[in-house]
Amino acid sequence: MENTHLQQDLPAQNGSNYDIEKELKAFDESKAGVKGLVDAGIQKLPPFFVVPENEVSSIAASKLSATHVQIPVIDLKDIHDDLIRREKIIEEIRSASETWGFFQVVNHGVSKEIMDGMIEGVKGFHEEKHEVKKEFYTRDVKKKVTYTSNTLIHKTKAADWKDTLYFRMAPDSPDPEELPVVCRETTIKYSAHIRELGDTLLKLVSEALGLDPNYLIEFGCTKGLKLMCHYYPACPEPNRTLGSKPHTDPDFLTILMQDHNGGLQVFHENKWIGVPPIPGAFVINVGDLLQLISNGKFKSAEHRVLANHIGPRISVASFFAIYDRVCGPIKELLSDDNPPLYKEVPLMEYITQYMWKKEDGGMSTLDRFRL
Ligand code: OGA
Ligand code: NI
């Protein structure tokens, strides 16, 4: 692992004998994740979790500013039976996707049992004995089921205060036996419901772009589905690190389920705005690939998760994406007044850059493909 860039951005260590690469390697080799550190009783953050001070102060500032504006909440009730309601919902999705890139949905048809079951299953896995979890710990990106702390540590400046259980559910889902026993059934059920909801949402999003309802499904947007099941342990020094650093999602659309703890924020009009947990709701956000094919009409907004004294916080992010093609702005959406903003992008190249290219001064991966 190459981590020389990590050193520059961290506060100097007393005595300065601290070898960050060695510490990170030891952390990774422990296969016990952030939860392992918490279980061991650490009271101070290991330096590789500490974010630069300016980011810490922006955390403090955002905690002070009470949020007057909130991301839209869209009620999907009667979506399949009431055409007038449907039109209204499409309009709400269009507006939310243009201005925020984020919204929440309620009455989406996925039951509380399925949602709670998934949260419990994910919690169950992360709270399994080390012997069980370590068998899944790997950075092999070809595997369909993995457990890792900090999947993108090689590209970021500091580690996130979270551990992640990952499933690639489509195309070609794992054999049930490959899933951890404690969350096997719940994950299979949950992902079937998420695929259905994904279809429903992508039809609405197609219409919100003025396209045929099946356009984005036929395009392949729902062919690939990955679940990232995060566990954010309670943090002894929450003002010195982040649960998830600011990022945009590398997919078409994300369906996020968060538990009651909160901490998710969206960057909107130069401020971090909290996304309050609503029982039974999903948070939906536009990813980079939808921003690309909609020619920038729909926004892939930056978001992050604060660390917290309280925890664990559990969330499940479901990513709809496929990288087996080249795509650019959808031709039907372009005109003399709306010329293409992006090149034709080989999505494999995009995702490779997203995963491996080091952070550089605010330029997002998608920005690099602008015309
Ligand atoms: C993600 C993400 C937010 C959360 O997985 O990309 O932004 O609340 N997760 O865990
Ligand atoms: Ni995200």
TrEMBL record:
Keyword Transmembrane helix: no
Residues covered by the Fe2OG dioxygenase domain: 223-322
Cofactor annotation: Fe cation
Keywords: Iron, Metal-binding, Oxidoreductase
InterPro entries: DIOX_N (IPR026992), IPNS-like_FE2OG_OXY (IPR044861), IPNS-like_sf (IPR027443), Oxoglu/Fe-dep_dioxygenase_dom (IPR005123)
GO molecular function, one term: metal ion binding
SUPFAM superfamilies: Clavaminate synthase-like (SSF51197)
Spans through the membrane: none
Family to which the UniProt record says this protein belongs: Belongs to the iron/ascorbate-dependent oxidoreductase family.
Protein name, as recorded: Fe2OG dioxygenase domain-containing protein
Organism classification: Eukaryota, Viridiplantae, Streptophyta, Embryophyta, Tracheophyta
